[in-house]
Design goal:
With about 110 residues, this protein is mainly alpha-helical. The protein has 2 helices and 2 strands, in the order H-E-E-H. A hairpin with a 4-residue loop joins strand 1 and strand 2. Keywords: Membrane, Transmembrane, Transmembrane helix.
Length: about 110
Amino acid sequence: MKMQLYLLFGFIFALIIATFAVINVGDVEINYLFGTANWPLVLVILGSAVIGGLSVGLFGLIKVIQLQRQVKKLHQIHNEKESWKEERVAEPASEPVTSSEEVPHEKVEENK
């Protein structure tokens, strides 16, 4: 549902940009480092929107890849700790515990 909402907002935004671009149909002078050119304002607006969308998408993709790597690393650390715990539980005790000895245990806090 959340993705559909984003898609709807993106479609509305694209429609607003397209309407704005079609209304402004005059030519504009674009200054490059090596010269100038006259382009229709429609192409300048739409091109800027496309380049902006692609750059935001690229940065978002890079962030997603970084987060996936972090999740993979954290899963690996978690699995190593779980296997270490299982090994510790599976090891037989070197000396039997008598009832007079106190067994150390972790204190668990209760959420109220």
